[in-house]
Design brief:
two-stranded antiparallel ribbon; eight-stranded mixed beta sheet; homodimer; 12 strands; alpha/beta
Chain lengths: 398, 398
């Protein structure tokens, strides 16, 4: 089993952000797996989405259940094989897992307060610039590949536009060239739930010793609904009652347990506030878990980075023109049941790349899991990625 | 223009609810349009969905913008023609527009408190029983038709099962035989937003002089996203900035206004809390408006009635068996872009009715508006309904 060790680097030079603001100095938390070859041709950067981190693969020594968030994809013998590639995971600025973010001390605060809501708005492009500075420090000029799913895929696209000469291949999974109005709408409802939580205190809740957990729970519940497909929700939860079996068994106890098979007619509780259906229990659990570890300001920042990403914007909405700067090879993957970042959005990217005579591979995977599929180990999906990295390994002599 | 007059009837006998609870006594608010013929064969009952009421059609005298919620469908010369039919709209129990609900005095309260969260959970079937008692009082035995969209369509289905001998035709628009896990999930998030609002006070906020507006706003924003299609949201709002034109014009003012056409490159505000996109502004407005007039306990009750509706439940999930009791004619209508109550759900009902040799008409309308389409006046949709009611008028000599 791959054992991961988190690292961190400090950057003294201010980072100029797209908004015009600066981050005066910052830390970037990262992990690496595998070995950089002598020619430095085998580096792969993995970019994370909303609630993940630099801990992509492996486990932490002595910590049970500490697998990285893409451990099924990255590791020894995995599709992104760390026996051939030197893989880097980096936590993005504004996140809450080690890199500088809202929970860190604001150097402009006279009395040493944390940033909170004063952490500047960061964009996908800002993250990519910071990632490039990290690579400089690691002595890596060219990436064999940059790869990410969802928001991570947006970072991969941005890499090919901001640093075309530093990327050989980009792997963009379950992503989109920008958010739709509906995507933005879901983000906005989640943000409003957080911001209007009385414990948010305008984003400076830390100094009040509270956390806007109500808002975070609602935000996460909304997120979860959009990560899953309607079909997989029906398959997993359907209209099952939370404790239907227990209640049916109870009811049948006096009749020799004859009602054990009567699950389908177990009685409702008739309550508007108690959990009645399994899906409710699942969502509440996910919301509670998330509110215990995720930072509310980070949630706002990262969903805003999603909203803002739109490379075609400076080209009058013309994505083909926007992607003209890209010169690397591309693999795009989408999932047919993903209604958050639907295959049609990936096809827009594919078309724009083809308009520019780029070398593009595209796989549309018929997996049932919705957007979440990008994190799961569908064999067709993993097979496509594995083959793509095998070809890349040959190309860069990894 | 049709002028509507709200009416109300008091019911002294307790109403036994599906949950086992009772409503000791109650008022039902209703409106009627047109004239009941001598043979009493031309009555049509319209059932409302989540946030509507008995005010289906017409306007209130002297009140601007007081059109009923289905005024494009019901009225003189409209598809449901009040010159031929006697149309009844009724506000359901637990609602907040006149019929007995959480804001009314609880007769079991020693000190005259309102029900609040103690209002009993009501189901679609409970509503139908109350509607039948109202018809008894109006001297109407048989309905020419019962009609509703969404949750209203569920009431129409329930009528055909509970009172098959009292219904000639049922018109079920944009409805479903039950909610999917995803539907329940959206309802649950909305309910959690309301219940966890500190101003909810366990549902007894009235005695604290507050309203859980934060929660109601979030609930309504979530609802609105699910009422619209992704396409119509993109067409209506897309990624437009809230004040892009103004800002572009501002920017161009020093250059003789040359930037007036530069809307697409207007700068972002780079804010996580301010409105940036038009869709955000729209959702916040809808949320604010709703929180000003809708009762929080009613929201919980009505979404729960949606969750609970499932006529196939007592038949091991077999909808064909569940609908075997229905003997009237049916018209079902669905909309291809409705992802809340998708056409596939209407087709399940159609199939189950056909299994029972029912007389079923079905129209699937290619309207772009999502679930909201059932309230809009698409000419194909209205044409189908008009033709259906013309045939019915001939049948009942209306």
């Amino acid at each position: 089993m791959l054992v991961a060790t988190p690292q961190s680097l400090h950057f003294d030079a201010p980072l100029a952000l797209q908004s015009g603001a600066f981050i005066r100095q910052y830390e970037l938390a990262f992990e690496t797996y595998g070995t950089l070859n002598a020619a430095k041709t085998n580096a792969v950067l993995i970019c994370h989405a909303l609630n993940a981190s630099h801990h992509v693969a492996g486990v932490y020594a002595g910590q049970a259940r500490s697998e990285g968030w893409w451990d099924n994809m990255v590791g020894p013998g995995k599709p992104v094989d760390t026996e051939r590639f030197f893989v880097i995971g980096v936590n993005n600025l504004g996140s809450c897992f080690g890199s500088t973010g809202p929970m860190h001390t604001n150097p402009d605060s006279a009395d040493g307060q944390v940033y909170g809501a004063d952490f500047p708005v960061v964009t996908v492009e800002d993250w990519v610039h910071a990632q490039a500075l990290l690579l400089d420090r690691l002595g890596i000029h060219t990436l064999a590949a940059v790869m990410g799913g969802s928001l991570g895929g947006m970072q991969a696209i941005a890499w090919t536009l901001l640093y075309p000469e530093r990327v050989r291949r980009a792997v963009v999974v379950a992503s989109a060239p920008n958010l739709t109005a509906e995507n933005i709408a879901f983000n906005e409802v989640a943000r409003r739930a957080i911001v209007t939580d009385p414990d948010f205190h305008g984003g400076h809740f830390y100094r009040h010793g509270v956390v806007p957990k109500r808002g975070l729970r609602i935000a996460r519940m909304i997120g979860h609904i959009t990560y899953l497909s309607d079909d997989v929700m029906n398959a997993k939860f359907g209209r099952q009652l939370r404790d239907a079996v227990v209640r049916a068994a109870d009811a049948g106890a006096g009749q020799g347990g004859a009602a054990a098979g009567a699950e389908s007619v177990a009685s409702y509780r008739y309550s508007t506030q108690d959990v009645e259906f399994q899906i409710e229990s699942y969502l509440r659990y996910q919301g509670d878990k998330f509110a215990d570890y995720f930072d509310a300001n980070t949630y706002l920042l990262i969903t805003r980075a999603l909203d803002y990403f739109d490379p075609a914007r400076s080209f009058g909405g013309n994505l083909s023109q926007a992607l003209a700067r890209a010169s690397c090879k591309f693999l795009l993957v989408s999932f047919v049941t993903d209604w958050r970042f639907a295959p049609a959005r990936s096809r827009e990217i594919v078309k724009a790349l083809l308009d520019n005579q780029c070398d593009v591979s595209y796989a549309e995977i018929d997996a049932p899991h919705g957007h979440d599929a990008f994190l799961l180990d569908d064999p067709r999906y993993h097979g496509v990625v594995r083959a793509y990295f095998e070809a890349l390994a040959a190309e860069v002599q990894a």
